[in-house]
Amino acid sequence: MTVLTAAACSLFLITFGADAAAGEGWRADLPWAVLESKLSTSASLIDTGFKDYASECTPEFVNFRSPIRSTFALINQPSGLCLPHLACGYDRCNPRPSANHTYDLHAQDILAMAQEVAVPDAFNPALQDSYFNDPSNPSLDLPSKVLHPVDASDVVAVIQFAKEHSLELSVKNSGHSWQGASSKKNTLLVNMNRYTCYAPTGITNCDAQSLGIAIKDNLSDQPCHLSVAKNKPAVIRVGGGENWDKTYRAVKDANEAGGLYHIVGGSSGSVSPMGWTFQGGLSGSWGTRYGLGADQVVQIEMVLPNGFHVKFGPTEWKDASAEGFTVPRTIGVTGLCRTNPEERDEEKWVWGDCPNDFDVDFMDLWYAIRGGGGGTWGVVLSMHLQLHDYVPRVDYPASSSEECSATVFTADSSLFMHPLSDPLNVEFVATYMMTPSVLNVTVEQSRACGSPGIIYNMPQCYGEEAISQAWITFLQMKNITGGTECLERNPRGGLPSSSPLGSRFEGQIADLPSPGIAAGAVNGVLVPKAWVEKVGVQSANDLFGISKFGLPYLWANYYAFGSAAVTSDQANSVSQAHRDAGIMILLFDTESETFWRDIAPEMFDLKDKTKFPPIFGSNHAATGMTGPRKDDWTKPCPGNWTFEERLAGCVSFQEAIYGTETLKRLEAIKKVVDPKNMFACNNCIRATEENEEEAADQEEVPTQEDKDDGVAVKEEDVGSTSSYPRNSFLAIAMMIGAAVNCFVY
């Protein structure tokens, strides 16, 4: 396989030196010259700080507005610090100092920063705020030094250096994380954006006739053996610095040259296949037919915290069709270690058994990475992803014609994104996706379609589907005469559209949504499909009610599941809630008692008080969010508690995503893989010590005798408060952040 250089892979490659001379800058006591001597000539190791963030990143937010503003411009800045949400360069994605900061105040801050969306023609006053312009702001959460590696030996060198000197590392591709997971102060950032590119020449056709009976010892044909077992045509190798734009264009070029491939991925071109996949990989516009992003991985290559360069993937599996699964069950994973880690020529790499004292279980690692989040298990250098047979895409948007608005989509036309948000269209899409039999649609036809949801509410379909006929049936059920032409049919080919950014990034895959100053403040609730089938779409909508914006909660949806329940290899950490979901709803106010008291018990089994179930989606989860109170799961985590109080007294963000049992297993694996938390990204899985857990348990937690909505906070602690009730301004912040910054990640 031909390997392109990093220069050929990057949009552009800048050659530059360090900001500080040897012996200066962050941790000047360390022998940085020793590390530099082990790096390739194209790699760069630089000191960074606020001045780089202000000069390279902030201008994109000041000078450009959506949709011209682009993450593509940010990820190629020399320092490697820029993020798709400017505020995520600060602790909890909030530039306000966080001492004694309550969640209510945090939500107000997000609302203030998000006003650029609500008032797009006004210059955002948030950027004039002194917190954004203060280099001494204690909330700054930027790496102190950045390495731009270009090959595997660079990554091995930096991890071995960090291990020797007890340094913490952070990792970034494009930085798409509402948690700010790829930015952390007092860390050495490994920015992978200029790493070796594989996708343009990385497609391998998998022919069963040409494969041997057994997998080769070096695992070179393992991806194809697994692909053939899944009855799939090919795989593609994607580098740790590549994004979906580069990957999609590689598949597009192959198809134009005669290939017939389909790949499941994210809808935004600047998103990384790594972080997206390891969070589960919700792909409303691509994956409902073939499963989640985590289901597409067939082999992983990475450098672990112990410094070993490894590759691993399933080598034993068995048919699981009798259990209802469409892919084999993984029962054995084999991994190899590279025995010549200093060799830069990949053609000369030597793979062999890992040493006797190598105590990482590859089956556990395979489980943990696919679903357990990125940035915490090591540095991923490449992945082999599954390719599927090509199927053309057809979109079905609701028509905005005057006739359709007068006769079919008759709701208030001032509502956001009318007619896509029209309650009639919302109900039709929900019915087709979750209760298709009502429309005489088969499960297979329903799974052919998906939608990245919020704003869209537009089915995006591949292969055999029945949208047009189902629309006619739906209109008849509603006793609506005519209107068949009010659901348009738009063939789109097989790939996302090219960038709408004009001449700035002509020909690249659309980078939507555009970067925003604020990250969102939402919890995506994974509503079980079986529950919706039981109560019906209309009853579900009645229970959820109407949001404060006059829109049904089902409007704020993410249909990205479909076949997820049957496409698992049963050896990954994607929660069962993801597998069983019919929809992820983004605008639930999970800070309200109504949700935990009335709605959650209807959808989830909350009887066993020792095992909290997975409820939230991991993609799009925002910083500061938690589950309910630990001592009473019918009560929300009080918004006027500080973050420290919420951490001690409420079900954690991670536990609400993975559930108690899976979280414990992931933490146990992390303790083996990375016992010293070399990789301890914000809100990521970490190795925990029993004494730390005991200390958290012993921390003073407000009791039930406190105010129903939380512990009273002194007025001087919170400053002036909004006239909005807490749930109202939080919901508004959720709406703005989710609607514009979230729906296609």
TrEMBL record:
Gene3D superfamilies cross-referenced by the UniProt entry: 3.30.465.10, Uridine Diphospho-n-acetylenolpyruvylglucosamine Reductase, domain 2
UniProt xrefs under Pfam families: BBE
Matches recorded under SUPFAM superfamilies: FAD-binding/transporter-associated domain-like
Keywords: FAD, Flavoprotein, Oxidoreductase, Signal
Signal peptide: 1-20
Organism domain of life: Eukaryota
EC numbers on record: 1.-.-.-
Region (Disordered): 690-722
Residues in FAD-binding PCMH-type domain copies: 139-390
GO-annotated molecular function: FAD binding; oxidoreductase activity
Protein name (record): FAD-dependent oxidoreductase
Organism for this UniProt entry: Skeletonema marinoi
